[in-house]
Amino acid sequence: MQAEVTFLTRRGAAVMRKSHTATGETIRFGRGTGNEVPLPDIRVELTAAVLRQRSDGLSIERLGDSLLRVNGGTTGATVVGPGDEILIGPYKIVLSSPPDGLDAALSVELVQGVGDSLQRLMAESRIGLDQTGLSKRRTSWMLFAALTILCLVVPIVLYSIGAGVKPSTSVPADGNSTFLGIAWSPGEISNSHRYFAQNCATCHQSAFALVKDSACLTCHSQIGNHVESAAGSDGDPVRQRLQATRCAGCHEEHRGLRTLVIREGALCVGCHRSLTEMMPRSVLRDVRGFPDGHPQFRVSVVADARTRRLTRVDLDAQPKPADHPNLVFSHAAHLVPEGFPALGYKPMVCAECHTPEASGQGFLAITYKGQCHECHAQKFDAALPGKEVSHGDDERVIAEVEGFYASIALKEGGPGGSAPAPEIERRLPDSLSPPPSDPAGRRAWVRQQTTRALGIIFDEKRGCFYCHVPDPARGQFHVAPVLILTRFLLPARFDHAKHAPIECDHCHDARHSQASNDVLVPGIATCVTCHGAETASFKARSTCTSCHVFHRQELGQMRQVMAVEK
Amino acid sequence: MTVTDPAAALSRRPSRHESFLVYARFRYLKIACAAASVSLLLYLVDSPYGSRYGGSWAGYTLGTAGALLILWLMWFGYRKRLYLKDQGNLVAWLSAHVYLGLSLLVIATLHTGFHFGWNIHTLAYALMCLVIASGAFGVFSYVRYPRFMTENRHGTTMPQMLSRIATLNDQLRSVAISVDDRTTALVKFTVETTSIGGSFWRQLSGRYPNCATAAALTGITEIRANTAPELAAAMRQLRVLLDEKAQLLMRARQDIRYKAIMDIWLYFHVPLSFALLAALLAHIVAVFYLL
Q1: What pTM, to 2 d.p., does this model score?
Q2: Residue A424's pLDDT band (boundaries 50, 70, 90)?
Q3: Please, how many CA atoms are within 13 Å of residue A309, restricted to the half-sphere of its CB?
């Protein structure tokens, strides 16, 4: 079999042809050099196909595994003729009419060249992270835009349209927890304000503006003042300073769960360290800190019980401060170890007289009925063991006693009495002499008995004057008004409940107190045995607000100081 | 006419080989330490009521300093592209960028007063930490990997390596024509699928589990045992060529890996910087919007 084989090579528009005649039993196509038509490319098998001369013409047959395409269709073996196009790997073989004497004519052309290896390699390689589709610029813009929208635009829009940020002080708070309330919160909100914390506009009522005091006073309208609002004293630097101070100036929100009330002493000491200079009319003394720089306590004691006038005296003052409750009382006499018969000889303890308030902070007022009556009953006649006079009103006592005896005289010795009075009066001890039967005698008897009984009642050994101070200006049987204080450190607060584990004796030297004039309030030296400065390491840290309050309800409303609404 | 001494002018210029880390005898390290120390001093001197925080006078000072520093540090991203302006100065900028960027960690942390929460303020801080951390990794990689790259390249460059691999592909293609089809298929596969670089992870890991060249080497070793004597020379030649290609590929891929490690941090550093810029803007606006 003979075939004319023409290799075509294209260089641009030019086509170069190189022909030779292949001779063999068959015409084989393949990479191998032994083939009649060598196709030198590794994409072609060693012997890929064979062209045979058959009786009915030419046939092409696949020998290897590679695909054989004839006129676009895949085939294993097929009859071919002039004009047919055969694809073997990257080669295109086109049959044409053979010249005379030959069995076949075909042109061979490499239609899929390998190209430049380096270019191809570089084209296939992706070197550098910038070739992987990642873009710093694109990612940067995306992140910037996303965060600007999420963290800035959305919160501003939420605030502006009032979505979830309505001013609200209702309980429970209106609205749900909002994105704004969480995302923009610069710090943990105080515990007492948390229930409306998601409604930012409750406090922040306008943008780029400080929180106004009016926002605070919406709820806290009754908050107490710090100083007395004295007319014509607006020129005081302290008052001016207070007026210029916003609520939020001291009460900084978003500073944590328990820091809304500033407890640092520096806030108070800022003014109080030079108060005598700033406010010469003030009766307050300068304070530079605690314990160092804090003056001795000044106790409020009764100066005049009749006029209910109190006075404040330094505990270190000489002579020693004295209380004048108009009472004769000895703590020491009551705290004797052997006790008293009426109490079963059990030694008295403080708690028997000093009853804590419900809060435990202080003690209830001492009253005759509550504390004294059990031992100091106001009986006045052994013959009338069940009779007692009322306590607390000496005029009424006189009337009551006179009434007792007048009643007896009426019952037992009325006009036309049962029997005449015996010549010799015989009666049992402690029994009451019978009233005479005549009216004049009965009146005399009543006066006599009343005088006798009042003598007992107002006796300084047995009666009122055992504990009370006489009031001679008003008469023989009159008691001076009593004023017993329950608070002695008025501007301060002391919580006895917090100090309950400590024995009373530790602070109050009652066992050696002989007179009611004694002031048993301990001085600062007693406090500092346990309490130290706010930075103390081994003592209870104490600040101004541990004992003092800023907003004092008794001085009226804070709003009065805030003449100009901030 | 002024005559300038070229040697003197040259000596004034900073050496091109001077590392940004030691630039001007650690000038910017000293400045950064001074900035951090001043910040710490401010933090300690300020004692607002309650704990220290960003809203006190020291807090605002530190915050303003931090914000300005962030803007300045980000300006470096633009400044460094002006290559031709003043190369020597760029080293100074980079040195300052690195050290002052690290000092920002101290300044901003003190500004926070160590108060953190689930809000945009802490988000800005966290992003800043991530930016600094990525930058610190960048410094680490710039110190560590150039030496490895030099050792790995054996004096060649990536284009040279690629050119050599392309030549090897041509040689393989040429030699493989005469060998059996199975071997040719292996060679064809390695020639046509020379995988260099690729996906993000491939470049970074340097792992090419489906490497055609490695597969061809393994396959050809098995085939050589049963090959016809007349093909032994070609097979041996193929083996040598494949070996050389595998070596070159390993070197090229390792080079790409080192380069990827040296580049990857910037893909975090830059976008996170812009995220930080947005969060910082939101932080500042939020603080003053709702005073």
Answers
A1: 0.74
A2: low
A3: 4
